[in-house]
């Protein structure tokens, strides 16, 4: 159909506005990336504003990976993302599958308990007291166990399991399969979209762990990457390892700004690399519970 002049102008204006918004959104990411690869001398010569460097350098990245503090922080964040995501998916899928079976006793009461957790938040003090009583203060497990699952994710995954035909489970039981066998051999393989979507959600959350680490971790060597990055950027908080970050950056001859930008790129890159591999399943998983039929 032929568009009217007004509709054409409107579409053109929308395109221009969206392009401008996209440029404004992407420019900070581009600037961080460019500065992280800029040669130290060129960065100082241009007073810290570089749109495209003439001399590229990996010095900031080499320096970061030569420091034990940054390597330890990267290892902690990787442990949280890998182990935490695996445990969270296991717990969330098991609870959701159980709740999706109508023959489960006390199913309604459990559902109400999960809904209550969505409506009322306990705040900061009760979780801290619980972590302290469990003896998890200053342990990386304090960043995993209290957040192993989410009531909202349980309800969403339950809606996915509700759409799996009950006849499949009945056929497996006739063939002699146990409940665990049915869960691992039939249900989980059919749940790849849901597992990929929630796996990405959990991985991002664990990789970006910050506030709980500030509350529960006292040892600078056990800080995850986001806390170390924050201390490097703020460069002043001595109570959470800021002094160690200052000392770490003052022992080299590189501009601190290029080191900070390199740290930001490293902390962002893993999630950006994982997302394309999960995109096919992710686009299906985000539609969980949206269509009933």
TrEMBL record:
Instruction: Kindly list the biological process annotations in GO that this record carries.
Output: transmembrane transport
* Gene Ontology cellular-component terms listed: plasma membrane
Q: Per the UniProt record, which residue ranges are transmembrane?
A: 12-34, 70-97, 109-130, 136-156, 183-207, 258-278
Localization (cell):
Cell membrane
Q: Which UniProt keywords apply?
A: Cell membrane, Membrane, Transmembrane, Transmembrane helix, Transport
Q: Which PROSITE patterns match?
A: ABC_TM1
* Domain ABC transmembrane type-1, first and last residues per copy: 74-278
* Major place of residence: membrane
| Matches recorded under InterPro entries | MetI-like (IPR000515), MetI-like_sf (IPR035906)
- Could you tell me the superkingdom of the organism this chain comes from? Bacteria
Give the way it sits in the membrane: Multi-pass membrane protein
Record carries keyword Cell inner membrane: no
Family (UniProt): Belongs to the binding-protein-dependent transport system permease family.
The protein's name = Carbohydrate ABC transporter permease
What species does this protein belong to? Answer: Paenibacillus xerothermodurans
């Amino acid at each position: 159909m032929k568009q009217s002049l007004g509709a054409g102008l409107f579409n053109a204006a929308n395109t221009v506005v969206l392009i401008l918004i996209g440029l404004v959104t992407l420019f900070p990411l581009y600037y961080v990336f460019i500065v992280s690869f800029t040669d130290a001398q060129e960065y100082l010569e241009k007073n810290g504003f570089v749109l495209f460097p003439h001399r590229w350098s990996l010095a900031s990245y080499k320096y970061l990976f030569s420091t034990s503090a940054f390597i330890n922080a990267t290892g902690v964040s990787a442990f949280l993302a890998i182990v935490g995501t695996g445990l969270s998916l296991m717990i969330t899928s098991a609870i959701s599958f159980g709740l999706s079976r109508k023959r489960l006793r006390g199913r309604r009461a459990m559902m109400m308990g999960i809904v209550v957790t969505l409506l009322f938040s306990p705040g900061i003090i009760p979780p801290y007291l619980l972590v302290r009583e469990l003896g998890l203060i200053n342990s990386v497990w304090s960043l995993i166990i209290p957040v192993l699952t989410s009531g909202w994710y349980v309800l969403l995954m339950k809606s996915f399991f509700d759409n799996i035909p009950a006849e499949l489970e009945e056929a497996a039981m006739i063939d002699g399969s146990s409940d665990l066998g049915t869960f691992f051999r039939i249900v989980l393989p059919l749940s790849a979209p849901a597992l990929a979507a929630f796996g990405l959600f959990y991985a991002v959350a664990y990789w970006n762990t910050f506030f709980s680490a500030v509350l529960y971790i006292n040892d600078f060597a056990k800080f995850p990457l986001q806390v170390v990055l924050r201390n490097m950027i703020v460069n002043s908080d001595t109570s959470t390892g800021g002094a160690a970050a200052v000392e770490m950056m003052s022992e080299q001859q590189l501009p601190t700004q290029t080191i900070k930008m390199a740290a930001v790129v490293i902390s962002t890159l893993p999630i950006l690399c994982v997302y394309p591999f999960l995109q096919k399943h992710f686009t299906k998983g985000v539609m969980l519970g949206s269509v009933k039929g």
